[in-house]
Amino acid sequence: MALLELDKVTKDFGAIRALDEVSFRIEPGQVVGLMGDNGAGKSTLVKIMSGIYQPTAGELRFGGERAHIHSPGEARRLGIETVYQDLALADNLTAAGNIFLGRELKKNFGPLRILDHKAMNARAVELFAELKSETRAGDFVRQMSGGQRQAVAIARTRLSDAKMILMDEPTAAISVRQVAEVLNLIRRLKDAGIAVILISHRMPDVFSVCERVIVMRRGSKVADKAIASSSPEEVTALITGALEAA
User: Which of 9, 43, 108, 215 would give a disulfide with 223, using CB separation of 3.0 to 4.6 Å?
Assistant: First the structure.
């Protein structure tokens, strides 16, 4: 059974059609690249899957059941997490503090409920170990590299037992070594049976970690192919319109 299915999903903003009958399915543990030029519809698609927008027409099914995702909170309860390009991390907090931000663990202290920093740090250490990341729970985010920041954002998604993670340009504006770290984190998620949709402009990243690539152009899906049966040249032609569809 597919984890997520989109069936003829359409999104209109007034007279502008941002998505036009987009259909695809994602299996558990699959890593799928989502590519397209600016304005191709990638962001709108991600916002529908994450509950920020609702489709004008078409439907989503998650785990075989029709899904009405009206907010990011509803998406999270289903098991869909999103790591946005800006990561939404607080520089003045530690890695553990960011992971548990808004979901803090507390303990009783007499009549009071206080933050359980020890338990949060211990769980953060476990999460980084699961991801095989060298990021340290007690380090402040403001001191971290781009790759370490991505590790914190990904570890945060693991608190809610995510089944699918939408990753928006996770390797933009970071060094080559940090890119390798992030791609390894994506492989760890796959090994854990978590599906990943990787939104990226970086062809080498998509061809390195993804099993399939979905190409969008002007709001339509123009290709959905196995990586093994495509090439960077073909995907580039699909993105630019030199090739109509594949």
Answer: 215
